[in-house]
Amino acid sequence: MPAFSFRVTHVDGRARRGVMTTAHGDVQTPAFMPVGTQGAVKGVIHRDLEQLGADILLSNTYHLYLRPGDGLIARRGGLHAFIGWPRPILTDSGGYQVFSLAARRTIDEEGVRFRSHLDGSAHLLTPEKAVDIQAQLGSDIAMVLDECLASPSGEELVRPSMQRTLRWARRARDRFLTLYEKRGRESFSDRGSFPDRGSFSGDSVIVTNPAQAQFGIVQGGVSPELREESARGTVGVGFEAYAIGGLSVGEPADVMYNVVAGTTPCLPPDRPRYLMGAGTPQDLVESVARGIDLFDCVLPTRNGRNGQLFTSEGPINIKNARYAEDDRPPDPACGCYTCRTCSRAYLRHLFQAGEINACTLNTLHNLHFYLDTLRQIRDAIAFERFESFRAAFHQSLSRRLHDS
Ligand SMILES: [Zn+2]
Fold first, then answer.
1. Model's pTM, two decimal places?
2. Ligand 1: centre distance to CA 120 (Å)
């Protein structure tokens, strides 16, 4: 089983192209991760995702922990086996959903106490527990538990929250290293029975992917000083790679870009950088320009289900009456299945009729648009023409007025 690694192959300005290697295959970066909340991307099946060229999926620990349970998934051999997806998977820590979905949550130094949004049952999510759950899921990349502030907050809230996230990061790393016995080979031979491959069990946690990597998360709101302090502290703990969290929560785009631009230089150049939860097509291009390698976002899937299609000339809303007799494909510049076979008129009809295929066809197009944008970005970086790609991309998006 190959260990986690990352290699930058091309640099163009601050944009990087690279290859992230995991036990379940390579990810070409910069990469976009479709969101498969419940172990499935809503509206499409894994076969579609493979055909779209998705290298890696994101799945949500909170949802899988509550239902069907990480123990049940571990007993099936882990998330890859359970859902039938052989390629890389990243799982979040569950924190974001606990902070945004759970009922009656309270936070203290130990962790977050919350009640399930499904049945009201009481749970405690600690940094250690988030590591254990993700070990049982066996994702290729596990995220540490961080404290998520709901919206842009003042420094008096952000500083203690960032410091708590840092203390939690140390606890999460300690737990991870204990679980995976990565402190040194001596500890393996001392025990004499460490299996070199496949799953093993310790402290009743079934580790289903011994090659799992763990990413730390930089917090600190929109303050450059707090972001730098958080980055220094998180890198000091030492993770396989680093994410930037707490952005794309309602702050203006240029504020987010400035935070990204200020944070990436504080992160090791030889490790992937993951901007969590962003964003629009413009956000992807602008963040790559500032040194980001990994993205996830619900926009292409969620908005697709709501009838919004991202196109090379800006988003269109297929519900709009003006498309009732429009025979053009959603995006004449797109080569996806939906654009090759469906007119705007047909897609509008399916949406108006509440036909389930409307979700599938819209989602297929939007994911293709996102994944293809990243493909174009990677090509542009390889040929050292990222700046001209970036200019042309923005010019195309603003070619006409958006209607949604
Ligand atoms: Zn298309």
1. 0.94
2. 41
